[in-house]
Amino acid sequence: MGQTQDGYQPYDQFILFGDSITQMGCNQEIGFGFHAALQEAYSRRLDVVNRGLAGYSTAHAIKVFDKCFPPPQIANVQFMTIFFGANDACVPGHSQHVPVDQYKENLKAIIQHPATVAQNPRIILISPPPVNEYQLEGFDAAKDTPHPSRTAHFTKLYAAAALEVAASLKVPAVDLWSAFMKPTGWHEGQPLIGSRDAPSNETFASLFTDGLHLSSAGNRLVYEEVMKVIEGNWPDQSPEVLPMVFPSWVDAPK
What CATH number does the domain located at 12-235 have? Predict the structure, then answer.
């Protein structure tokens, strides 16, 4: 969008499209939220818009995408994160489960959607983080789920699938699954941290509030990894480089 008749330059947007992990990215009760941190980083430069939809899988997302993603006549979208998979990765038989091949197709459909193409934003695909089965017991009990809704091993498949989609479409990605595993010292071939095959890990548990949703520390990891992708792929779009929409008060009209 260009300037309005009175010379006002609307803020471009940075849209966060995802599930409850995105929706809760500005939850003050958690403490540090990745949405709030991005808004602070891009303050006076971009509007960071939260389109997190709790409980949604990619099957839900593709049906509402064109209703929550603005056309170019409404706003100019500079960035978009796509952050789904936590619900798709529910075990088969669960109402939120989406088969992994369909999950991949749904991600591609969002990235290649006519509404996305019309805006041509800088897209960052975020893989779902791992889950902690030791904490999920309380989450499932609160939701009156008699059996585990998610497993560490099954979620790992969806994280890999998201990265496969990103690579196939040449879209920058955040490997959040690996970022969460790194502080634990886990290596491929070892019993999977977060599963019942490995002992409970205190460092890993500190990244979650309930084994699925993220703590302040987990949100900080999301923010740091997103910023790494921006700085590595679009250094000219780093917050310190972008100009303010309104000038500093020193240069403001008197």
Answer: 3.40.50.1110
Task: Provide the 10 A C-beta neighbour count for residue 146.
Answer: 7
- Per DSSP, 93 falls in state T
What pLDDT is stored for residue 247 in this prediction?
72
Nearest alpha-carbon partner for 15 in 76, 62, 73: 76
Mean pLDDT by 10 residues, the chain (254 residues): 56 97 88 94 96 97 94 94 98 94 98 96 98 90 83 97 98 98 95 96 97 96 98 96 81 66
Q: Say how far apart CA 217 and CA 219 lie, in whole Å.
A: 5
Helix (H, G, I), strand (E, B) or coil at 165: helix
Residue written as token pair 């006002």: 8
Tell me the domain boundaries of the chain.
12-235
